[in-house]
Design goal:
208 residues, alpha+beta, 11-stranded mixed β-sheet, 22% helix
């Protein structure tokens, strides 16, 4: 059984490595279309240290133009874990996404919160609704040591707050649906985490 498992992982790793090498630009284009945001990265590397997956270097997810012209997320390192069984049949499904010390910008305007417009791109067939339901489906999202800047532009003057040392974990992630998450963070200048929370996120969450 162990030999069969190692053989399967090796087979998937070889195929995945070849796929990454040959399809770097296509991957960036498909992810950008799925998220509805421009996605850029320096390189993709096969990784087996934390399970079979993809190490992403210098990842940037651009802001929705309706909320600004900066970046929504930037991080020097991210890891995307791939499910082994579907990969044996050529389907690369995401089991886990980890972001290492990212900078995240959240913006609220009269149009809503920029987070809510993720995964509103079109599918290859042009069907927005089908893209929304399948574009981002992740069993687990881990964010470690993040810096989050939140700006509420519905107030005069605009209200801004920065949260540091944020650790965030969400399960059964599918943008557009309710997501269960847990977090800890340092706020109001604290040197160590002084806030913890557990919540089910819905689009109305930022209204409170």
């Amino acid at each position: 059984i162990v030999l069969l498992a190692c053989t399967a992982i090796g087979y998937v790793a070889v195929n995945l490595g070849s796929y990454l090498t040959a399809n770097r630009e296509i991957i960036a284009e498909r992810v950008s279309r799925a998220l509805g945001r421009t996605v850029r990265f320096d390189r993709l590397e096969l990784s087996v240290g934390r399970g079979l997956g993809i190490a992403v270097r210098d990842l940037t997810i651009a802001e929705d133009p309706r909320f600004g012209d900066g970046d929504f997320v930037t991080t020097h390192g991210a890891f995307v874990q791939i499910r082994i069984l579907p990969a044996l049949f050529g389907r690369y499904e995401v089991a886990r996404v980890s972001l290492e010390s990212p900078a995240i910008s959240l913006v609220k305007t009269a149009d809503g919160v920029n987070l809510e417009t993720l995964s509103t791109g079109e599918s290859e067939s042009g069907d927005t609704s089908s893209a929304r339901s399948r574009a981002i489906a992740v069993a687990l999202l881990d964010i470690e040591n993040a810096t989050v800047r939140y700006g509420d532009r519905t107030q005069k003057p605009a209200h801004e707050i920065e949260v540091s040392r944020l650790d965030f974990q969400a399960s059964d992630l599918s943008f557009g649906d309710a997501v269960r998450f847990e977090l800890s963070a340092a706020v109001l200048g604290a040197a160590s985490p002084n806030v913890t929370a557990s919540h089910t996120y819905t689009p109305e969450f930022f209204e409170s």
